[in-house]
Design brief:
Elements: H1 6-24, E1 26-31, E2 37-51, E3 57-67, E4 79-83, E5 90-103, E6 106-112
Antiparallel strand pairs: 1-2, 1-4, 2-3, 3-6, 4-5, 5-6
Length: about 110
Amino acid sequence: MPLFSMSRFTDLIKVADDVVIQTFGDLLRWNKTGGATVELMGIVDEETEIWGPDGELSYLGKAVTFRASDIAGFARNETVNLLNPETGEIVTTYRLQKTLSNDDGLRIIEITE
C-alpha cells in the first residue's frame, strides 16, 4: 500500500475538521421545522468569505460552519440559537438561509438575524 493516498488524505482532513469544530466551535441549538431540536457544535462567523474558482469573492457576510452530517436536511428559515455554554441560555438567534459551501465534510450556511 502506498504511503500517500487521496483517501487517507481526505480522512485526515475530516478528522482535522472535527477537531477544529469541537475545539473552537460554539454550542448551538438547531430548531427544526415541526418542533424537534438538536444541540450541536458549529462556528459562527460574522464576516465569512467564500471565494470562487477564479479567485473572485462570491460571498461576504454572516455564516455558520457545521459538520455536514450534523446539519443534513436543514430547511430555509429554520433557526439556530447560539447558546451560553455555561447556562444554556440563548444568546442570539439566527435564521438558516442557504448552503454556501458543502465539501470535505463541512457545510457553510448563510445566516441572518
